[in-house]
Amino acid sequence: MTTPTSATAPSRAFTNGSDEDAVPGEDTSEVTRLFGERLQAWKHAVGYLEDYITATEKVQHAHGKEYERVLKSVKDPLKEGHHFDQSLGGIAGMFENIRSNTQGISNQHYDTAKQLKGTTLPIFDRLHTEIKNKTKELTKGAGKGSKAVDKARNVTQKHIELLGQHTASYDSTGGKMTATDDPYVLQRGVMYRLNRQIQEENNNRQDLISVQNSFAQFEAHVLQTIQQGMGQFMQVVNTQAEQTKAMYGDMVGTTQRVPLDFEWNGFIQRNSTVLIDPAAPARSTSNINFPNQNHRSTQPLIAGSLERKGKIMRSYDTNYYVITPSKFLHEYKTDDDFAKDPVPELSLYLPDCVIGACAGQKFNVKGKDVSKGKLGNTFSMSHELQFKAHTSDAAAQWWGIISKAAGTVSAEVPAASTPTSPVDSSPVDSKHPAPLQTQGLEKKNTIGSVTSPTSAKTAGPTPISAAPASGVAGEPGKY
């Protein structure tokens, strides 16, 4: 029996270039349908053999009856038989031999029909059932994976379209929008869903590769079973006659000469543009581009880690902060887009906020958390948030960018940075600290320059200039 030889690897692979589509237009169920059609072809081929064996069994049974009719022609004793010697070796003995052999031929046809039905036909019947089960396995396995990929791609496409809508409205509205509609936030949401989509695509890809590899072994099993069944068929019909033996032997010989991988290699060559190349690398978000990915509204003015004093424990916690061109200050736990959906823990709309003076590494910002949307913004209270940068230069850079976007710039320094006067002996209420003074204060547009309060009240938000150079080499605007 021949052994399988290596087939030419399929040339089709998932897109892995440097400029990929986030949602490919390919049909995820194309490979599954192709394998389903191939299983259907094998099932029909086995069905043909079943029909062939069944028809042969019926013919053999009919031949048995016909030879019984032939036997009746020599059943009666010879007329004028007394003219012939009744001992063996004579004419009477010849006819007795004819009757005996004719009865044996009839019985042989009945036995052949019985063996075809009881031993040869069940081989192909079981193989037919195995192919049906393989079809169900393909539908429930790879078929479900394709549906999961389609569902994930639809979710990604919806969020990409949502990002497109709000990046388009960014310029028309002058950058004024809600925190949830901030293109920066929406882009991070797209990255989260794109990552989940790619995981589904890669999982489905591995499933299809496993199915593709298992098909080679399964087809070898199918062909081996066909060869076994045809060999059994030859043994049964070989007792009929020497003439039919030559014909059936040629058919089975032709079947036995078919290599186990002959059909598989032809299948690979004919469908090389559809099947998956197992050597092709998996998809990665680093190689994918999508619409509005690099829109200026999605690029932060400054981003990095800051420490913020807690309201209860009064200790500093480190978080990841971003100032976007939409004049929002967003707080995240980390800068990881893939661990979970990157929704801001806190969002401040800077034109509605007041920023105090920068004292060393510290500065304060007073405003409302608008991360809960319009309704949450209505009922939220203003809080004074105390920030601490890693260095004084970093604090000055953050303060400079925030002060350009803030509605009011105060000259009040953080409380922890102002020493207590030894002359002032008045008691201080620790539960009700003095509010941040914002009336009559001048707004600072840049570090070291002051403008009048009137100039700080503009008709609407204006885009913020790009962030100044970072103190860390190679990472502008990050700490």
Automatic annotation (TrEMBL):
Keyword Protein biosynthesis: no
Composition-biased stretches (Polar residues): 436-457
Pfam families per record: BAR_4, PH_20
Keywords assigned by UniProt, alphabetized: Phosphoprotein
Compositional bias per record (Low complexity), positions renumbered to this chain: 1-11, 414-428
SUPFAM superfamilies, A to Z: BAR/IMD domain-like (SSF103657), PH domain-like (SSF50729)
Matching InterPro entries: AH/BAR_dom_sf (IPR027267), BAR_4 (IPR046868), PH-like_dom_sf (IPR011993), SLM1/RGC1-like_PH (IPR046869), Slm1_PH (IPR043453)
Protein name listed in UniProt: PH domain-containing protein
Region ranges (Disordered): 1-28, 413-479
Span of domain SLM1/RGC1-like PH: 290-368
Keyword Phosphoprotein: yes
PANTHER family: CYTOSKELETAL SIGNALING PROTEIN SLM1 (PTHR31941:SF1)
Domain SLM1/RGC1-like BAR-like, chain residue ranges per copy: 89-271
